[in-house]
Amino acid sequence: MIRVAAPLLVAMTIMAACLPASAQALLFDLSRPRVAITSAFAGTDILVYGSLDAPGDVIVTVTGAPSRQTVLRKERVLGLWVTGARQTFDDVPTYYAIAANRPLAQILPTDGVPGVAITLDERMAAIRAQGAQRRSPAELRAFERGLIEAKRREGLYPEGIAPITVLSGRLFRAELQFPSRLPVGDYEITAYVLRDGQPVTAVSKPLIVSKAGFSAEISEWARDEAPMYGGVAIAMALVVGWVTGAVARRF
User: In sequence order, which ranges of 60-165 are alpha helices (DSSP H)?
Assistant: First the structure.
C-alpha cells in the first residue's frame, strides 16, 4: 500500500502547486473508497494521504453511520446476574476513530473547539437518550460509559490515537486500521487542519462499508424475503437437531 501511495502523494503535490492559494488549504483522498465485508473478512487498512498549503496540525476522524443502541445493566439478584435497567440512545456512531500528527492535548484548546466535535467525548455529547427526563445525569453518564466500554471491547471505538506522518510540513499520510467486526454503512472521514488550536479548514470524504459475496446475498434475501428466510432457518434448525439426536442415539 505504501508503494501505491508514493506516486499518489507526488500527484497531490503537483496538483497543489497548480491550484490558486485560496483553493489548496487542504487536499486529501483515500486509497480506496469502499470496504467489502465478506465471510473471510478479518479487518483492513485504508491509507489517508494529502497535502497542506502551509504547515499546520492535522486531525482525521472516522465516523460510522448514526444508529440506535440499547445498553443493558446487569444486576445481581439472589446470587444470579439478571438484566435490569436499560437505556436506549439515538444518533450513536457505529464506529469512531481519530488520527492526529500530535497528541490531541497539544493541538486542541483545553475547552475544545466551539461548534466542532473532534474527541470521542465531544461526539458522544451529541447523542440523544430516550426518556432522559426519567433518569438523573449521573445515571445517564453511567449508561454512556457502559456504551463506550462495550464499543471498545468490540474494537469499534479505538482508545488510542492513530499517528499521522507529516512530511516537509506539507504532505501527510495515515494508516487507518479497521477491525474484523466492522459494521456496514456509510462512513465519513473528515480531515481538519488546525493552526494555533483553531480549525482552518475541514474536508470530508465518504467511505462505503458493505457486504459482498455470499454473505451479501444471504443478507439481501433475509431483508427482502423475511418470512421465507425465517421459515427456512427454522426448518434447517429442526433438521440439524433431528440429525444430531439420531447420531447421539446411534452411538
Answer: 104-107, 120-124, 137-153
Q: Are residues 230 and 205 in the same domain?
A: no
- Please indicate, yes or no, whether residues 123 and 13 belong to a single structural domain of this protein: yes
**pTM for this prediction:** 0.76
Distance CA 109, CA 133 (A): 32
Q: 136: which 3 cell numbers?
A: 438523573
Instruction: Tell me the pLDDT tens digit for each residue of 18-57.
Output: 444 444 579 999 999 999 998 889 999 999 999 998 889 9
C-alpha cell of 9? 502523494
- Other Cβ atoms less than 10 A from the Cβ of 88: the count is 14
Distance CA 50, CA 29 (A): 6
225 shares its domain with 207: no
Query: What are phi and psi for residue 61, nearest 5 degrees?
Result: -115, 145
Q: Which residues contact 79 (CB under 8 A, 6 or more apart)?
A: none
Q: Are strands 57-63 and 185-195 parallel, antiparallel or unpaired?
A: antiparallel
Q: Which three cell numbers stand for residue 177?
A: 486500521
Same domain, 104 and 172: yes
DSSP letter for each residue of 215-248: HHHHHHHHHHSHHHHHHHHHHHHHHHHHHHHHHH
